Amino acid sequence: MAQAARPHRGLLSFLDTDGKPHPVENSFAAATLLIGVIAFITAHFPHLHLLSSWAGLIGIATGLWGQLISATTGERFLLIIGLGASAVGFYLGMAHGGLFGGLMG
Questions:
Q1: DSSP 8-state symbol, 48
Q2: Which residues have CB under 8 Å from 97's CB, separation 6+?
């Protein structure tokens, strides 16, 4: 139980379950979760379809890349939650007007 005595340092250190720091992977997980929450919340307002669809698309891209480079289960957990929220925001944003709704053509 040596890991129980080891102090955790940093805001996202609970994601480093293997004992090594993963700043890039943790950043992708946090960014995907934040973007996913933004996309999910703004998707419930039809007039914010541009924000929700673009945030959802960016969240999907960062989440997929984060899954590719993730190192621990905690990172993957946050990435899947963020990916799901981003996908919902993207699809509802597309249904309400899309990525360019009204700006082109």
A1: G
A2: 46, 49, 50, 53
41-58: pLDDT as tens digits: 999 999 999 999 999 999
* Nearest residue to 30 (alpha-carbon basis) of 16, 57, 12, 56: 12
Query: What does the pLDDT look like over 53-86, one tens digit per residue?
Result: 999 999 999 999 999 999 999 999 999 999 999 9
> Could you tell me if 26 and 12 are in contact, meaning their C-beta atoms sit under 8 angstroms apart?
yes
Mean pLDDT, residues 30-49 taken together: 96
d(CA 20, CA 71): 10
Quote the CA–CA distance of 49 and 52 in Å, as a whole number: 5
Q: What angle do CA 61, 66, 71 make, to 5 degrees?
A: 170
CA pair distance 95, 48, nearest whole angstrom: 12
Give the residue carrying structure tokens 């709704």.
101
How far apart (Å, rounded) are the C-alpha atoms in residues 87 and 82?
A: 8
Q: Which residue has the higher pLDDT, 86 or 21?
A: 86
